[in-house]
Amino acid sequence: MAKIKKKTITKRPQKAKKAKLNKTKKSEDYSSMSVDKFLDQDFEASASDEETNHDSVEESSGDEIQEHKAALSKLKDTDPEFYKFLQDNDKKLLEFNLSDEESDDEESAPHKPPEELEVASDESDFEDDSQVKETGTVTLKMLKSWENSIQSDKSNKTITTVMQAFHAALLRVSSEEGQEQSNFKVEGPAVFNGVIQLCVLHLGPALRRFLGLSDGSKQPPHKCKRFVKVRRVLKDYFMDLSKLLKGVTSANIQTVLLKHLHYLSPFMVSYPNITKTILKRLITIWGTAEEGVRVLAFLCILRITNGQKAKFLDTVLKSMYMTYVKNSKFVSVGSLACINFMRRSLVEMFALDAGVAYQHVFLYIRQLAIYLRNAITVNKKENIHAVYNWQFVNSLKLWGSFLSASYHKMQLAQLVYPLVQVCLGVLKLVPTAQYYPLRFHVVKILMDLSRDTGVFIPILPFILEVLSGYDFNKKHQKVSMKPIQFTFLLRVSKSQMMENGFKDALIEAIYELLLEYLTTNSHSISFPDLSLLCVVQIKQFVKKCANANYNRKMKQLLEKIEQNSKFIENERSKTTLNITDFKQIEGWEAQVKTKGTPLATFYDSWIKLHKVKKNKQLTNNEELGEYNLPTIKKKPAKVRNEGPVELFPSDSEDEDGGEEKKRKRGKRGGKNVNKKIKDESGPVEDEGGADIVEDLKMSDW
User: Fold this and answer.
1) CA-to-CA separations, 274 to 240, 241, 306, in angstroms, rounded
2) Higher pLDDT, 156 or 79
3) 186 with 168: CB under 8 angstroms?
4) Which residues, 6 or more positions from 58, have their beta carbon under 8 angstroms from its beta carbon?
5) Hey, how many other C-beta atoms are within 10 angstroms of the C-beta on 559?
6) Which parts of the sequence are annotated with region: Disordered (predicted)?
7) Which of 253, 361, 591, 652 is buried most, with the most CB atoms less than 10 Å from its CB?
């Protein structure tokens, strides 16, 4: 065995030496020779001898190792290039220092090839180790097959595939770094829209069908047996949906995604961490997006929070209130509707839990009271401006609306008194003419609160103070081009106070507030006593005021108040009431209210016309009246049985030509032409339904 080994080992260096002497063969040829081939004869010989005589191999193993090491050491001198090749590619062969046990184990262990063989290519040298596997491109044909299978597939295979495709679609429009790659690739807007449409239309019903949940089921999804199979992919899907909502600005796409999220909101019970992120995004959309998108965002917030009150109601109320205050800093024609919607929706959210709402409302009203106290005690501009601003007033409107809607709950009814005290303090803080608009806003809050809760609040003195404290006989120095709207003002400037429109707006506001407040109490048994001070103040104003329009307006109001007082006195004289029996008095007032009062009847007819006029002013329709544009009115033509009816006889070519000639002559003639046109514009009675041109009247708008 030893002799055979010596021959096989010593022959290899001789062959390598002959290969070196051959100048046509390059040194790189050794790279094609593997170490296994270099030792194949030794391995075969040793293996055959081990089968025949295993004991003899063990005795001579030490001599073989020494001889083998000596043969390898000679390569350093005889063939240094081959020795260097061994150092670079098989260093273990040169360092032959294994123990007997390790050598025996390695010689006896058979060679096992790896399970996956690497295929060498030119591009593999330039690929990064972190590169993912080759991805598949999503096509419209694939989307069609997924759409068919997701409606009938009982497993989660198609659901998982569709969610992965949605992630790939998000990667196409997202530029965030470090995102987890997808097994699919979405290219083209058609495929992108197809993936989004597939998820929006079919993913929700497929998930309910897979988990066995009906549409009205209140069972949490994580308690279903098959939820484990979709838990991970559904979590990633909600994260992708949240990112997509954050990056989308189109109202149409936001509408579609929010409807889809509203349908999937019951599944979010199983993911509280992701739900916080989605709620935060929804609150941002609720406060800043378009009107239709705001409504959908609020519905999603309401459904998610209502299902998990203990976890998210407290946080949601804080975030929504801060968003409301932040976005109500300015009030204009465009922002008024959004602010009103946020206030109404916040009232709905606070009404979900009276206990949680009481803690929040108490703290926020207390915070408003602290601002008011600082403004009263310090009396600086900064402190006064902290109270006299839109955010403060809109906060008062919010809590007034909330307490009006939740007054029947005893726990919340206790907050009416501190809110009324804050409002009265705001009215008394700076009682000057410049802040009359703010006074009217706060008075309106108190009036609504008194009407809805039935709590008596002394509001009339703050309205009548304006009527008696301002000099309406003072001549104005400027003429208003537009009427002043107190709806969007808290303070008027000095130049606005010099305009005639300021006094007009004051009379309109006083008339409206007095009429509304007295109408609210028109069925009260104490109406004659309540309105007595108002009657006296109005009579004094009529005597002092020299403006006929103002006097006529206030006399009309005075007449209606006195008429209603006589009506209540007449109704009181018909029955005998015990003043201490409140239930009897409430029953009598309910009967009178159902029967109807003269003041309430007048108010119903007046408010309809007033709303129309107010809407015209808000939409600037009054400006069209300055141009005196003519309007065309057509009388209905009589139906005749014989012959066709000529609907527009004035549209013929001859008459058009005649009109053009009249216009040309009008430039030279002047008066005669104007007189002729004026005669033609008068009312004409014609059976054929001729056109009638009249001057523009604001009532036509």
Assistant:
1) 10, 10, 17
2) 156
3) yes
4) none
5) 12
6) 1-74, 99-133, 638-701
7) 361
**Cβ–Cβ under 8 Å, residues 443 and 427:** yes
Which of 294, 208, 280 minimizes the C-alpha distance to 243?
280
- Distance CA(123)–CA(395), nearest Å, equals 66
Helix (H, G, I), strand (E, B) or coil at 639: coil
CA 380-383-388 angle, 5° bins = 115
Question: Is pTM beyond 0.90 here?
Answer: no
Beta bridge partners of 137: 185
DSSP state of 475: P
Site of tokens 């049985």: 641
**Cα 329 to Cα 421: distance, rounded to the nearest angstrom:** 23
Structural tokens at position 480: 């208003």
Do the Cβ atoms of 261 and 279 come closer than 8 Å?
Answer: no
Distance from C-alpha of 28 to C-alpha of 41, rounded to nearest angstrom: 23
**Tokens representing residue 52 in the block:** 């025949």
Task: Say which residues have a Cβ less than 8 Å from residue 267's Cβ, sequence separation at least 6.
Answer: 207, 221, 234, 238
Give the residue from 697, 694, 676, 673 showing the smallest Cα distance to 684. Answer: 694
For residue 228, report the phi and psi dihedrals to the nearest 5 degrees.
-60, -30
Residues 581 and 17: their CA atoms lie apart, in Å, by: 130
Label residue 426 by pLDDT band (50, 70, 90): very high
Higher pLDDT, 96 or 495: 495
| 42: exposed, middle or buried (Cβ count in 10 Å: 0-12, 13-18, 19+) | middle
Separation CA 382–CA 368 (nearest Å) = 15
Torsion of CA 122, 127, 129, 130, to 10 degrees: -150
In DSSP terms, which residues pair with 693 in a beta bridge? 632
Which of the residue ranges 185-194, 311-320, 375-384, 441-450 would you say has the lowest mean pLDDT? 185-194
| Strand 136-137 versus strand 184-185 pairing type | parallel
Give the closest residue to 482 by CA, choosing from 333, 337, 606, 339: 333
Write out the two tokens for 372: 């008011």
Angle at 616 between CA 615 and CA 620, to 5 degrees: 115
Residue 425 pLDDT exceeds 90: yes
Residue 162 CA to residue 146 CA, distance in Å, equals 7
Helix, strand, coil shares of the chain, percent, nearest 5, are: 70, 0, 25
List the structure tokens of 606.
Answer: 């007046």
Residue 662's pLDDT is what?
42
